[in-house]
Write a structure and sequence with these properties.
This protein is an alpha/beta fold. The chain contains 14 helices and 25 strands. The chain has helices at residues 29-40, 55-66, 96-99, 102-106, 127-135, 169-177, 197-209, 244-257, 277-283, 317-325, 346-356, 386-398, 417-424, 426-429, and strands spanning 9-11, 14-15, 20-22, 46-49, 70-72, 78-81, 86-91, 110-116, 139-141, 147-152, 158-162, 185-189, 214-215, 225-228, 238-239, 260-263, 287-291, 294-298, 307-309, 331-334, 360-363, 368-371, 378-380, 402-405, 434-435. It is globular. The protein starts with 8 loop residues before the first strand and ends with a strand. 55% of the residues are buried. Pathway: Metabolic intermediate biosynthesis; chorismate biosynthesis; chorismate from D-erythrose 4-phosphate and phosphoenolpyruvate: step 6/7. The active site is at residue 315.
């Protein structure tokens, strides 16, 4: 959005030659915001190295500072010193990791904590976590943004059953602060299959690194119950991995142009869902290899369609949908009905925007069916959704004349997206086969 209130459109770079680049990405939003909460509730000071600085993480920092936590550092290294939590107002923006992770921590504050956010955030489901907190002994006014948590300095905790099929963040939000509850917590999920299980595994792994005792079933993939015992959260110096989900548009650029893109510092083992992009790209015909900590993807001459269940890695859907729209055979993306409750209704948004450019996308009960069709230029609306914006950028590489509404929304998790994208394309953009 421009300063005069008018909608701005970014002409997506279009190229006719393969992309060849190395792209170094900042830290993971998911890990950064979890580490910030654990550091704020820890038994001593912590240091975060490689932290992502974006709208979502800066809002988390500001919220925790408002609650009384001392956080120093204006770049990727942050020094976090816990302090008793106090009354404040929390701006959630459009960040699920704030509106769903911080209310349980706010229960430990002395005084009221008011939550508000962007206009579109009022539509994001929150009843599950707020009702769960009520059952655990918290007084909360409201069922969606804005709402008020009446903190008393402690929370009873105990056992609670929730339907977290709408978002894994409901489980993670309860687990992150639970060691500080009087009785800890036992969370049981009762409902349709849980989405984004890798994010819950990330939460459990980080809690255990902080010496929090977490009990889960032996098979974490089928987990329905999690127990966190009460006790201290040990201070940890966190080294944040690169954000693998933010890497996916850049790797997709290699796939759709028949080029080669490398991402340094790709972790060998990780709980980040973004790691699954390697398997997806290979199934669509690309090559992917890791050598000496660098992931390199080489695109094929022809991109194949894919039939895939994205239930556990739903955040990759916009990237995969863009790839599918540029493939040479049909694709079916399944298991992602929960995306209707993300930053926007991502299924409706993807079908509307790809079809606006001439595509053939049908929305199903739990996903999308995408039949390749000749695409043409036009306006691509982002719906204030960072991953919608980057999906449009992928399409723009192969489709001339794509203009993306509010590319600035990528600042939610990757403020440097445009600069990184244009740097990646710099050699191509200076050659004969490029246009802007």
């Amino acid at each position: 959005m421009r300063e005069d209130g008018r909608v701005s459109f970014w002409p997506a770079p279009h190229i006719e030659v393969p992309v060849h680049a190395t792209v170094t990405l900042p830290g993971s939003k998911s890990i950064t915001n979890r580490a910030l909460i654990l550091a704020a509730l820890a038994d001593g000071p912590s240091t975060l190295t490689g932290a992502l600085r974006s709208r979502d993480t800066d809002l988390m920092i500001k919220a925790l500072q408002g609650l009384g936590t001392e956080i120093l550092g204006d770049a990727e290294t942050l020094e976090v010193t816990p302090a008793p939590l106090r009354s404040t107002a929390v701006d959630c923006g459009l960040a699920g990791t704030i509106m769903r992770f911080l209310p349980p921590a706010a229960a430990l504050a002395t005084g009221d904590v008011a939550f508000f956010g962007d206009e579109q955030a009022k539509l994001r489901p929150l009843t599950t976590i707020l009702d769960a907190l009520r059952k655990l002994g918290l007084d909360v006014d409201g069922d969606a943004l804005p709402f008020v948590v009446h903190g008393t300095g402690h929370l009873r905790g105990g056992a609670v059953t929730i339907d977290a099929s709408g978002s894994s963040q409901f489980v993670s939000g309860l687990l992150l602060s639970a060691a500080r509850f009087d009785e800890g917590i036992t969370v049981q999920h009762d409902g349709k299959p849980l989405p984004s299980m890798p994010h819950i595994e990330m939460t459990v792994e980080m809690l255990r690194r902080a010496d929090v005792v977490v009990h889960t079933p032996a098979d974490s993939r089928s987990a329905q119950t999690w127990t966190v015992e009460p006790g201290p959260i040990r201070a940890v110096d966190w080294e944040i991995e690169p954000d693998l989900s933010n890497a996916t548009p850049f790797l997709a650029a290699a796939a759709v142009t028949g080029g080669e893109v490398s991402i340094p510092m790709w972790p060998r083992g990780t709980t980040q869902p973004g790691d699954v992009i390697r398997e997806i790209l290979v199934r669509m015909g690309a090559e992917a290899r890791i050598f000496d900590g660098v992931l390199t993807v080489r695109g094929p001459d022809r991109l194949a369609g894919i039939d895939i269940d994205l239930h556990d890695v739903g955040e990759l859907t916009p990237t995969v949908a863009a790839l599918a729209a540029l493939a040479d055979s049909p694709s079916v993306l399944r298991g992602i009905a929960h995306l209707r409750g993300h930053e926007t209704d991502r299924l409706a948004a993807l079908s509307a925007e790809i079809n606006r450019l001439g595509g053939n996308v049908t929305e199903t009960e739990d996903g999308l069916e995408i039949v390749p069709a000749p695409l043409h230029g036009g306006q691509w609306h982002s719906y204030a959704d960072h991953r919608m914006a980057t999906a449009g950028a992928i399409l723009g590489l192969r489709v001339p004349g794509v203009e993306i509404e509010d590319i600035g929304t990528t600042a939610k998790t990757l403020p440097t997206f445009v600069a990184l994208w244009e740097q990646m394309l710099a050699s191509a953009l200076s050659g004969e086969g490029a246009s802007h």
